[in-house]
Amino acid sequence: MKELHCWNETLPCVHGTWLWLFCLAAGSAFGQPQSAREVVPARERLMLVREPEVQKKLAFDAQQCRAVMAVVDQADLALWQLRDLPGGQGNPLARPLHQQLRDGLAAALRPEQIKRLDQLVLRLEGWRTWQLPSVADQLNLTDEQKEEYTRFMGEFQNLAGKIPDDIGLPEYRWIRRVLTAGQREKLGQLLGPPFDFSRCRMLEVKAPEIARVDCWINSAPLKLQDLRGKVVVVNFWTHGCINCIHNLPHYRKWFAQLPRDAVTMIAFHTPETPSEHDLGPLRRAVKERDLRYPIAVDNQKENWKAWGNDVWPSVYLVDKQGYVRYWWYGELNWRGATGEEQMLDRIYQLLAEKEPAGVVTSLATAAAR
Question: Is residue 362 part of a domain?
Fold first, then answer.
């Protein structure tokens, strides 16, 4: 991670580290944004408190680990299921869960630990924390600074797709040019000391256990709990979806190429149309397209709902400890995208990964400490 130096502060040059401030100002001082997402900082708080590097930094003791993981387990899946809802739909559902999470952590941690955790949430989320209240007010941005922000945001759009260093430098220059020394000092206080997030694994959520399915094709019934120690590739598809069909050659390649003793593939066939509930056409499609990996017939959409999924096709990667780490919506190689290559690389990364010593990722682990 590179660093930039100014006003006697060390600023991490990473994507979104500073842009969060300006987007946040747009949400408070400039009128409410159309798609505020309160679920975002709640999910980041969950991911951070179960990270071993964060646990070390905040000096969790064994009792705190147990208490924190009990709080995490209560809100974890419910918040993740809201990840793709528009703000107007997701916020009312996320708000009580986020408050429950904050109250539980406040009861388990010391005030200085909570303060540092809040700083890390802001640092991690970057521009996506713009829906949080009060920060722009604390910096007391002027009307002229707000106008400067609007112009900067227009310029920032041109950086879409750039590497993090290309984005971090304009953010740094904007702050250096527009904010006063006092505002920069206050900003530094809100963010706290730099933190190297590259050492964190960022476990998204404990993958939901497989719910009731109508039947299995190519396999006896499976449970994710029984697959601990393996990387699990989960995809949602339906046989009448052309975008799903375009992904099937990639899945066949993975199934043939990846070691079966280390990787399990599971496809949930979740119908999009009434006719796709019929098992006869599905079985013919599976045979014609030479699909040999396990397929769970999810006609009641119970697994679709459990994963909070709303896109055909979708692919998720679950690590050896049972946590969702990455996902891809839509065709993997749509219009020049390199999703197939990226996801395959991540599968191999998860295969090579070893659990850090001392990590607490579940209440059961915490209880054993």
Answer: no
Full residue range of the structural domain in which residue 329 is found = 205-352
The reported pLDDT for the residue numbered 91 is: 86
Tell me, yes or no, whether 55 and 164 share the same domain.
yes
Within this chain, do residues 170 and 184 fall inside the same structural domain, yes or no? yes
Alpha-carbon distance of 327 to 316, in angstroms, equals 4
pLDDT at 141: 76
- 368 domain-assigned: no
Per the structure, the count of domains in the chain is 2
Is the pLDDT at 163 greater than 70? The verdict is: no
Please answer whether residues 144 and 32 qualify as being in contact, where contact means their C-beta atoms are separated by less than 8 angstroms: no
CA distance 295 to 278: 14
Q: Model pTM?
A: 0.79
What is the structure's pLDDT at 135?
67
